[in-house]
C-alpha cells in the first residue's frame, strides 16, 4: 500500500515559527526529505528512527535536480512510507511545492500540506518593517530576482516600479544591481529605501539599510550572501524609527 507525502513549510529558520500542523506531520513521518534552508534545530524534531534524505545540496554544492527529488519522493511513498517533504518558508512560495504535488498526485500519491511562514513574513516581523502600512504601501509583491543561467532577468519593470507597493525580492543577491536599475529606469526614485535581510529569524540574521541607487554597492561591500531578501519601498523608512506621523506627512507631501 502507498504511503503519503506531507508537503511541509518549515518557516524561515526560527523553529518557533513552525505551525503546529507542520510539527505534527514532521513527527508522524518515517522519512524526511529536506531542503538546505531548513535549520538543524527543526530537523532535530523528526521522529526517532526516521530516515533523513537531504536534497538541498549534494557534494560540491550542486543541487539535486528537481526530477531526481520527484523520483525520491515517489519511491519513498510507493514503498509505503509517510514522507515529510520539508521546505524553507512556505512550500507554495518560490518553493516548487506545487510542482512536486502535481507530480506525486499524477502518480496516485496522496499529498497533505502544512503552510509555512514565508521568509518575507519572518523578515518583516523580525525587523519590525511592515509589508503594507496605511499611507505608505497599499500592496505587496513577492518577486523572484533569479534568472536561469545565461538568461536576462526578464521582469515587468513598469508594473513593479509602483511607489505605493512594497516589493519583496527573493533570490536577488546576484542580480540586485540589475533589479535596481530596472526599477529606476521606470522612474522609481533612487532614494527609495531598501532593507536587505540575510538569514532572517536565525541567530545569524544580518540587516542592511540602503537605497535603490546604492544597494548593489552596499550589498557587495557588506558581503551579503544567500539566503537574503530585499524589502523595497517606503515601508522601510519605518526601520529608521522615525515617528510614523512624520513619515506619513513625507509620503503624502
Ligand atoms: C527558493 S526560495 C524559498 C522561499 C520560501 N519558500 C519562502 O516561502 O520564503 C529561497 C530564497 O528565499 C529567501 N529566503 C529564504 N529563507 C530566508 C531567510 N531566512 N532570510 C532571508 N531570506 C530568505 C532568499 O531570498 C532565498 O534565496
UniProtKB/TrEMBL annotation:
<comment type="pathway">
    <text>Porphyrin-containing compound metabolism; siroheme biosynthesis; precorrin-2 from uroporphyrinogen III: step 1/1.</text>
</comment>
<dbReference type="InterPro" id="IPR003043">
    <property type="entry name" value="Uropor_MeTrfase_CS"/>
</dbReference>
<feature type="domain" description="Tetrapyrrole methylase">
    <location>
        <begin position="4"/>
        <end position="214"/>
    </location>
</feature>
<dbReference type="InterPro" id="IPR014776">
    <property type="entry name" value="4pyrrole_Mease_sub2"/>
</dbReference>
<dbReference type="GO" id="GO:0019354">
    <property type="term" value="P:siroheme biosynthetic process"/>
</dbReference>
<dbReference type="Pfam" id="PF00590">
    <property type="entry name" value="TP_methylase"/>
</dbReference>
<keyword id="KW-0949">S-adenosyl-L-methionine</keyword>
<keyword id="KW-0627">Porphyrin biosynthesis</keyword>
<protein>
    <recommendedName>
        <fullName>uroporphyrinogen-III C-methyltransferase</fullName>
        <ecNumber>2.1.1.107</ecNumber>
    </recommendedName>
</protein>
<dbReference type="InterPro" id="IPR014777">
    <property type="entry name" value="4pyrrole_Mease_sub1"/>
</dbReference>
<keyword id="KW-0169">Cobalamin biosynthesis</keyword>
<comment type="similarity">
    <text>Belongs to the precorrin methyltransferase family.</text>
</comment>
<comment type="pathway">
    <text>Cofactor biosynthesis; adenosylcobalamin biosynthesis; precorrin-2 from uroporphyrinogen III: step 1/1.</text>
</comment>
<dbReference type="InterPro" id="IPR000878">
    <property type="entry name" value="4pyrrol_Mease"/>
</dbReference>
<dbReference type="GO" id="GO:0004851">
    <property type="term" value="F:uroporphyrin-III C-methyltransferase activity"/>
</dbReference>
<keyword id="KW-0808">Transferase</keyword>
<dbReference type="InterPro" id="IPR006366">
    <property type="entry name" value="CobA/CysG_C"/>
</dbReference>
<dbReference type="InterPro" id="IPR035996">
    <property type="entry name" value="4pyrrol_Methylase_sf"/>
</dbReference>
<keyword id="KW-0489">Methyltransferase</keyword>
<dbReference type="GO" id="GO:0032259">
    <property type="term" value="P:methylation"/>
</dbReference>
<dbReference type="InterPro" id="IPR050161">
    <property type="entry name" value="Siro_Cobalamin_biosynth"/>
</dbReference>
<dbReference type="GO" id="GO:0009236">
    <property type="term" value="P:cobalamin biosynthetic process"/>
</dbReference>
Amino acid at each position: 500500500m502507498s504511503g503519503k507525502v506531507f508537503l511541509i513549510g518549515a518557516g524561515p529558520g526560527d523553529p518557533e515559527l513552525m505551525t503546529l500542523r507542520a510539527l505534527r506531520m514532521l513527527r508522524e513521518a518515517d522519512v524526511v526529505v529536506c531542503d538546505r534552508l531548513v535549520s538543524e534545530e527543526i530537523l532535530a524534531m523528526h521522529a526517532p528512527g526516521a530516515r533523513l534524505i537531504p536534497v538541498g545540496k549534494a557534494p560540491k554544492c550542486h543541487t539535486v535536480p528537481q526530477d531526481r527529488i520527484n523520483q525520491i519522493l515517489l519511491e519513498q511513498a510507493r514503498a509505503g512510507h509517510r514522507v515529510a517533504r520539508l521546505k524553507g518558508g512556505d512550500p507554495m512560495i518560490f518553493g516548487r511545492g506545487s510542482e512536486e504535488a502535481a507530480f506525486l498526485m499524477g502518480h496516485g500519491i496522496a499529498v497533505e500540506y502544512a503552510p509555512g511562514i514565508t521568509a518575507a513574513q519572518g523578515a518583516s516581523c523580525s525587523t519590525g518593517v511592515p509589508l503594507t502600512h496605511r499611507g505608505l504601501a497599499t500592496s505587496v509583491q513577492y518577486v523572484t530576482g533569479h534568472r536561469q543561467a545565461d538568461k536576462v532577468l526578464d521582469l515587468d519593470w513598469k508594473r513593479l516600479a509602483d511607489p505605493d507597493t512594497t516589493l519583496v525580492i527573493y533570490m536577488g543577491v546576484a542580480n540586485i544591481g540589475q533589479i535596481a536599475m530596472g526599477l529606476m529606469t521606470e522612474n522609481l526614485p533612487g532614494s527609495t529605501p531598501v532593507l536587505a535581510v540575510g538569514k532572517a529569524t536565525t541567530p545569524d540574521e544580518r540587516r542592511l539599510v540602503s537605497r535603490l541607487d546604492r544597494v548593489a554597492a552596499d550589498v557587495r561591500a557588506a558581503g551579503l550572501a544567500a539566503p537574503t531578501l530585499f524589502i523595497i519601498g517606503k515601508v522601510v523608512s519605518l526601520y529608521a524609527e522615525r515617528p510614523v506621523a512624520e513619515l506619513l506627512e513625507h509620503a503624502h507631501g
